[in-house]
Specification:
The structure is a homodimer. Chain A is built from twelve helices and 15 strands. By secondary structure, chain A is of the alpha+beta class. The first copy, chain A, has two domains: 11-279, L-amino peptidase D-ALA esterase/amidase (4-Layer Sandwich), CATH 3.60.70.12; 287-435, Ubiquitin-like (UB roll) (Roll). In chain A, strands 13-12-11-14-10-15 form a six-stranded mixed beta sheet. In chain A, α2 (75-83) crosses α3, α6 crosses α7 and α8 (298-309) crosses α10 (326-339). The first copy, chain A, is globular, with a radius of gyration of 22 Å. The interface between A and B is large, with 82 and 81 residues.
Chain lengths: 439, 439
Amino acid sequence: MSSTSLSFGSRDEHRAWLASQAALPRGFRTGTTRFEFRPFELPSKVAKMTLTLIALDTPTPDFAAMFTKNAFPGAPVKIGRKRLAEPALGAIVINNKISNVCAPGGEAVAERLCAEVASQLQLSPGAVLPCSTGIIGWRLPVESMITAVPASVAALAGRSILPAAEGIVTTDLYPKIRRAAVGDGSIVGIAKGAGMIEPNLATMLVYVLTDLAVPREQLRAMLTPACDSTFNRMSIDSDTSTSDTVVLMSSGKVPCPDLGAFERALHQVCADLTEDIVRNGEGVRHVLRVRVSGAPTEALARALGKSVVNAPLFKCAVAGNDPNVGRLVQAVGKYVGAHAPEVDLSRTLMQLGGITIVENGEFFLEPSKEAELVAHLRGAELYASKPDAAGLFSPPVDYPPHERCVEVDINLQQGSASSTVLGADLTHEYVSENADYRS
Amino acid sequence: MSSTSLSFGSRDEHRAWLASQAALPRGFRTGTTRFEFRPFELPSKVAKMTLTLIALDTPTPDFAAMFTKNAFPGAPVKIGRKRLAEPALGAIVINNKISNVCAPGGEAVAERLCAEVASQLQLSPGAVLPCSTGIIGWRLPVESMITAVPASVAALAGRSILPAAEGIVTTDLYPKIRRAAVGDGSIVGIAKGAGMIEPNLATMLVYVLTDLAVPREQLRAMLTPACDSTFNRMSIDSDTSTSDTVVLMSSGKVPCPDLGAFERALHQVCADLTEDIVRNGEGVRHVLRVRVSGAPTEALARALGKSVVNAPLFKCAVAGNDPNVGRLVQAVGKYVGAHAPEVDLSRTLMQLGGITIVENGEFFLEPSKEAELVAHLRGAELYASKPDAAGLFSPPVDYPPHERCVEVDINLQQGSASSTVLGADLTHEYVSENADYRS
């Protein structure tokens, strides 16, 4: 899906490239501040939180947003849905560390924070959108947050989106920024997301800013299909966050020369961010790109792709550079057997890295293929896995060394629909990250 | 679901208990043999296979079987479905290491093996049921297997089912045997299964033998609900094997005094084997037992339970004895948001180890609860996790130290239906096992 094929040899090289992408569209400023607090639920620990503001010079009526379909949405998501009816949006206030989901009094606390930001920026409270990400179930340290608002307001600057891209992350290894130009204007997006990621109609925290003047109704009409064909076609771990949010807003500073070009550029920024999110997923060592074609419907093609990228045994095999392609067949057969038993798999063609492994529903393996398949897997590996002295695993890089994927092609030869889904392997690094995330 | 609460201090203690359960029902014999071969797909390696026979003294018309719903079933599954129409079953021939799924000519090879076994046991080829488990995609070493048949026939003995329970395993840590008595007869079941386990209407390899005389039609009518309420309510890793098979057969040597008692005993043997399979799942350190009650339908209760036991982030938290209960809420909300958005979660009550964590849809956490929740998780841990010198993780025990579970209770307060689902944590041991399974 990505338009690019980048590679980086070091963190500095990657940061320099990010900086080159980071110029804010006209009419926006961002500011962040970091502070310590003691969580209500674990008062023996000192935790750190970053508060990030994205502010418009002038409130805009032209914004769109999509939110998680998880049936336990966070308080900020509930408030965000209401904000869609507001006449204008002036700022977004974002915190990491605690997601404010199902916490007692969560909505009231989020509204208090919005009111404080609004008061300092001379906005109405309804013009401030709150977003939170982090631990589910804990309460926001609202007093500490309100104390921190003036510092983040003071930090507001209109040059680079990089501090905001860094401010919103949790377990992400690196910030994610993508941009596209349309005429004299630009579309710039940032994303947070590393785990609990199989979005359902919206995703993680994504903010897409543009100075191109596109009216609210058109922004909203474009955001749904853009999310649907990008963020909604990935899964890092099949889990759907309670906080997923995508916001798109226009400062309207630059006339839009071509709405079609704007929509294509929006799609590209979303697609590029999608790949960034998967590549920087928790513990990800290989990105999987599964293209299902020849399907009777697009929905089936997508569901089959999801079944493959969510099959733990196939994911583990990929982690070990082990071309255990039987596990791929299992994942396809599992989905079809359970959900689409009418589909005939007898003509199925499967390829891994362009090498045919299944033809007409039968394996097509030879001893000589093993080495080629291993080479394809190794070529897509982002880094070698190695435990530290304590037996814990963590990625040795904090930048994306390359953009190669493990390429899986499944042609059912049963129709003309297709879909491409992104996913990741299942690694020791994922388990280390998540078996003791809070301590 | 289990009727027992066993614990074992050592492998020897566990084996002694297995031996006490292992007496074969009248009318059955089992035999195994182990041999080396070079796989067609990886001829540089020498692999080992065990061939196991389960034979009746006299072929029986009274048998039942259920098979995987995976849409890429193995050749033995395809043949097994045909065998259901045969007048009688006389023997089962089972191999581990290679599952004979989608392999070119797979059915012909399996039939050749059945014919060889039939010829040596004076049966018709249609009276022999083949079963294979192991790597998907590879070809069976049929010549080596046929050469090994006489040794397994010579090994046939009518005393203990333990050699067969040991012969059918792959990555299992220990054999699994459960029994129940009805009148003067018995029901004895064995199971193989450790990974690729979320059965769909049948499961792994399970053989249930009885000497109680129960006619074919009644055996078949009883097997479906027994599987449905036991094997079909567990998931180790959400993957559905291409080889899942459950066979139930009666030698008819003992009159059955009470069909109701037989059905209850059959259910109990299946339920006990289900818990054994989960507890011995690949890399499992904690067994999860999720009871969903107050649901509008049983199907929803079961699906919600499955969503919890298959949520990677919750599974990782459990592995780390980390009561990250937010991830539990995420898993419930993910399913309801995607599949049952009409369900009202605002009155939901959730407990972990009997401790209330969510009430009326809001978290009910206090600092003091953290230690109690951690204690519950630690109490259900089967062993401590520690990498070896090479950084690989494997379980330090090959017996089940206890039968305690992580107990999750979710009451939706929306109806009277309920379901209990078994699952497991997601551990370094699982990744180590599966990232390099074949080498």
